[in-house]
Amino acid sequence: MQVADDQLLHEYAALLRAHGEAQARCSELIRAQALEIARLEAQAMRLRAEVVKRDTALALAKEDRAALELAVPGLPKRVALARQVEALQARVRELMDQLQRRERQPQPAVAPDRLPSPAAELGNLEADLAAADLVICQTGCMSHGAYWRVQDHCKRTGKACVLVENAAALHIVRIQRGGEGEAALVASQQE
């Protein structure tokens, strides 16, 4: 019996050690969890404070914006227009870059028998009209589009414009200035 009692005491002691170790592990886990809970509670408190701070700043900014909109009439429309202007400026820069890239590319040689493009013709026409003091056009020698562009240019710039059926019939054209800055055309015909 003595052996059985010693064995029971030995098992009981082992059981008490295991129980003590389990209690120590549980106490350590509880202490670690308490520290983690305290850390998380502090973090939650800081986050709540940041949310309150952000919401307060947002509310104040909304009040300032509302006051500014009341103080400056048409501000929302101006802001929208400013955004459109920025978008248009970006588009202009993009188009200018494209144009510069195209200008850097070698241009094919133009055959001498080819006529200039309508765009080049229009540019040349505008440049020639801007340099002239008087525009005399023989109506039969102009395309329909050029006729209207010349008429429009003369109206916009206030230049004197004479359309004739036969340019060879004119000998001399003089512009005579009147007293109030008005110009009169005097044409001498060849006979």
Description of the molecule:
This protein has 191 residues and is α+β, with helices and mostly antiparallel strands. The chain folds into three domains: 1-71; 72-101; 133-189, no CATH class. The protein is built from four helices and four strands. The protein has helices at residues 2-71, 75-104, 118-131, 144-157; strands at residues 134-138, 160-164, 170-177, 183-189. The strands form two sheets. Strands 1-2 form a two-stranded parallel ribbon. A hairpin with a 5-residue loop joins strand 3 (170-177) and strand 4 (183-189). The chain starts with a helix and ends with a strand.
Write the layout of secondary structure elements.
Elements: H1 2-71, H2 75-104, H3 118-131, E1 134-138, H4 144-157, E2 160-164, E3 170-177, E4 183-189
Parallel strand pairs: 1-2
Antiparallel strand pairs: 3-4
List keywords for this structure.
two-stranded antiparallel ribbon; alpha+beta; disordered C terminus; two-stranded parallel ribbon; 3 domains; 191 residues; 4 helices; 4 strands
Number of strand elements: 4
Total DSSP helices: 4
Mean pLDDT: 78
Query: How does the overall form come out from the CA principal axes?
Result: elongated
How many angstroms separate the termini? 162 Å
Output the radius of gyration. Answer: 47 Å
List unreliable stretches of 5+ residues. 181-191
Helix content: 55-70%
Largest sheet: 2 strands, parallel
Secondary-structure element series: HHHEHEEE
Which sequence of strands runs across the widest sheet? 1-2
Give the count of structural domains: 3
